[in-house]
Here is the input.
Amino acid sequence: MPSVTWGVVQGRKEKLVSRVIICDYLKGIGIVPDELEDLELPSTVEVMRERVEFLQKLGLTIDDINEYPLMLGCSMRKNVIPVLGYLEKIGVQRSRLGEFIKNYPQVLHASVVVELVPVVKFLRGLDVEKQDIGYVLMKYPELLGFKLEGTMSTSVAYLVSIGVNPRDIGPMVTQYPYFLGMRVGTMIKPLVDFLVSLGLPKKILARLLEKRAYVLGYDLEETVKPNVECLISFGIRRETLASVIAQYPQIIGLPLKAKLSTQQYFFNLKLKIEPEGFARIIERMPQLISLNQNVLMKPIEFLIARAIPSEDVAKMVVKCPQLVAVPVGLMKNSYYFFKSEMGRPVKELVQFPEYFTYSLESRIKPRYQRLQSKGIRCSLAWLLNCSDQRFEERLQADYIETESAGPSFIMGGKLELPGGEIMSDVDEESDDEILYRHTVSL
Here is the structure.
């Protein structure tokens, strides 16, 4: 219980009179004192008024105080001022102290030395940067009430056991501190086990969680499982679920059915793409469900305006959905180079739409010029769909090797998508390596 300041030793009668006067004061300003019955109160109304006015200066309203009236039992000198001073010292802005108290008023009862300091030391021990401590506690102030040897330590130990790098725990806490309060047995482990059961290797899942710690907050029964079933109902093949989640982890936490329905209707309306084709699009580029349709239409309109039949544009989009995320300005430059410098027929673009996802200046032009100097004629895929090292090996070879389509969800060169996702070219990687590279690029 909070300590109480008493100015004088009072008799029983005097205490009762004082309590009545203080309660009348509190009622007069709109505070309901019912919860204060078993709490020792100050000896005078002046001391209580000082507490109320101090809390109001911090930004708390009478309604806020009524939400947790026990804060009125905290001594200014022994509780409130030391706690607020420490919070400010560790990075909570003075202007936001009232918000902090509103969100977690129980902190006013805490001992700075016995309860608050150890939690902050624990967070620093997890490699949370000193300048981020205040930010973390503002997001999740309840951390200050946790026992160090309980949920927090267990959560961290489990994540490390599945492959999360201990040095990444700090950034994960900064991004999503709430996982420190999650029980491993009932929340974290069931989610991990379910994702692994979909074919996502633990080491890939660990990399994913390092970058997207908030995935741990997705409710397994209410959100994740229904979303996985929703993907399957829209034609996404079970064997591709792992790659879909690795490319776009947010997909298991979105209001998915509405988004999929909207985009499926859009592609059917604009390009007559059937549900099966739409499913292949999502498998190759799940981020597409969150893209604005105005953004999607611009590349489509550009291609149709180049006299490419809409049915061919549909084939291009199904084969390489990343096409719809390419800025039209870049697409225009690549197209004109293709027509004026390379002089190739448009049907080659229909066969290899990934062409538009490669950088014109850093890949297409330099490689084309090398081919010209050697007098080599080849397909766009042979020219572009390989690493720089493999391209050099191809140029030195005395034959043109057989082309390989490669993994269906890896297309084109480095393409930055809305939201910061990166898709890169790949050269002879195992499925696990592909998933790993995808997760790191996210």
Notes: Strands lie at 415-416, 422-423. Confidence is low (pLDDT under 50) at residues 1-10, 405-429, 436-442. Residues 12-28 form the longest helix (17 residues). The chain has 23 helices and two strands.
